[in-house]
Design brief:
about 160 residues; mainly beta; Immunoglobulin-like; 2 domains; four-stranded antiparallel sheet; elongated
Length: about 160
């Protein structure tokens, strides 16, 4: 996993044998065990790393009015019971524009106003709730609503 992992050597002397993984990948999910041997014996601990990912298809940045699909996946083993989506902190109701099904959110005609932070919240059969956020960028046209622009010959037109 090098160079994505690190251990703070100075912290080891104080009994802190933490492992840092950056950036975390989906395949990093699983159980990690640390063992420290000293004069008094061997001490160990285990921690499970769960990973949640939010992806967009087609990949970001998305072009305005082109359909997109946000997907939320987790390494959690229980059955998925409910998925809730939030845009900039506000719940997203299901409509003709936004359709949610099994950890995915379909946006039929994304507008520039749909850019920003999208969060998914997954609730599992064991009542575990896991969430993640994705910063969605949408490219669009910031021009006049009328597609015809007139400019005088010899001048500049934007």
């Amino acid at each position: 996993m090098r160079p994505r992992v690190s251990v703070q050597d100075s912290a080891l002397r104080n009994g802190n044998f933490s492992l840092r993984i950056s950036p975390v990948r989906s395949e990093d999910a699983g159980v990690y065990e640390a063992q420290v041997e000293s004069n008094t014996g061997v001490r160990s601990c285990q921690v499970e790393l769960g990973v949640i990912t939010v992806t967009v298809s087609p990949p970001s940045p998305v072009v305005e009015n082109e359909p997109l699909l946000l997907s939320c996946n987790s390494s959690h083993q229980a059955s998925l019971v409910e998925t809730r989506w939030f845009h900039n902190g506000h719940p997203v109701p299901t409509s003709r524009t936004f359709f949610s099904l099994h950890g995915t959110l379909s946006i039929a005609r994304p507008a520039r106003s749909d850019g920003g932070f999208w969060s998914c919240q997954l609730r599992y059969s064991d009542n575990e709730i896991i969430s993640a956020t994705y910063n969605l960028k949408i490219l669009g046209f910031d021009g006049p609503t009328n597609p015809v622009v007139y400019a005088a010959a010899g001048s500049a037109a934007d």
